[in-house]
Design brief:
The chain has a single domain, classed as Glycerol-3-phosphate (1)-acyltransferase (3-Layer(aba) Sandwich). By secondary structure, it is α/β, with parallel strands linked by helices. β3, α6 and β4 form a beta-alpha-beta unit. Strands 1, 2, 3, 4, 5, 6, 7 and 8 form an eight-stranded mixed beta sheet that branches. It has ten helices and eight strands.
Length: 286
């Protein structure tokens, strides 16, 4: 881009005229929405965007494709999982809500978790498609193309964009099922915690609770339920022909936490979810 200052010297009167003309013809664009939410303050643009029904990004965060899901999920259930695993046991499907907004909160020990969650709680079980909140590092290339069209959308866990958070809130307000791994995406650390009997579940990130409380507060009587799920493998590295157990616990009702201050409510909800996952994990290992 060439600026006026880089041009050959002009008469000062002509230069001022050009600048006034440029200002009249081209309005300065509004500053872009910040990519992160800073503690204690959100810009007026971000606040306005959070009240709108559309995410901030001009590009759709996810494009759920029913025809692709109709091919991919049966292939996983009847082909890939029976081939790879010797046995998969699912306990507690009666706890899965069949209506209303739901967050499935599984433990995260392996990349196979993303296959076992639909196997245990997918559309052929509940009649409901699953939407996944996925680390932005996973939504790249061909894999990213499939993830976006199978209900997944990216979030940068280090610098979460408002558009991604808003998209998660919208999914819940639309009475859908959202999958969030509350331990985070560090599989190695999660597995190490799992092997430690004193701390079988990694410390949960507070983002899930904050997202659920924000969505619940934004829509009266929404009734979000958070379902804890513990996934246990017979071997940490999950080799071919290993076994898996999926334990589904009773849901937590987000509305039960709405009377406290936001930070206190998020801490209580996160602690209760962690306790529920620990209890399920103990059952998986019996």
């Amino acid at each position: 881009m060439i600026s006026l200052n880089s041009m050959t010297p002009l008469d000062s009167t002509v230069l001022r005229s050009l600048r006034r003309s440029a200002r009249r013809r081209f309005k300065r664009p509004e500053p872009a929405c910040p990519s992160t939410i800073r503690r204690g303050a959100v810009s007026s643009q971000a606040s306005a965007a959070a009240e709108n029904s559309q995410p901030l990004s001009s590009q759709p965060l996810s494009r759920f494709s029913p025809w692709l899901a109709a091919l991919a999920y049966p292939l996983g259930r009847y082909g890939l999982i029976p081939f790879y695993f010797k046995q998969v046991d699912v306990v507690g499907r009666e706890h899965l809500p069949l209506s209303g907004p739901v967050i499935l909160a599984p433990t995260h020990r392996s990349r196979w978790d993303a296959f076992l969650v639909p196997y245990a709680a997918g559309k052929d079980i509940t009649g409901r498609h699953l939407r996944f909140m996925v680390s932005i590092d996973e939504v790249q290339g061909l894999q990213g193309w499939f993830i976006r069209r199978l209900g997944g959308f990216p979030i940068d866990t280090r610098r979460p964009a408002i558009s991604s958070l808003r998209h998660g809130v919208e999914i819940l307000q639309q009475q859908e099922t959202l999958v969030i791994f509350p331990e985070g995406g560090d599989l190695r650390q999660n597995r190490q915690c799992h092997l430690n009997r004193l701390q079988p579940v990694n410390t949960l990130q507070p983002g899930l609770a904050r997202l659920a409380l924000q969505a619940e507060a934004g829509t009266a009587g929404l009734g979000i339920q958070i379902v804890p799920i513990s996934i246990h493998y017979s071997h940490p590295s999950v080799p071919l022909r290993s076994s898996a157990k999926v334990y589904i616990g009773a849901p937590l009702h987000v509305s039960d936490y709405g009377n406290a201050a936001p930070k206190q409510a998020a801490r209580r909800l996160t602690t209760d979810l962690q306790d529920a996952l620990k209890a399920l994990d103990a059952g998986c290992q019996r």
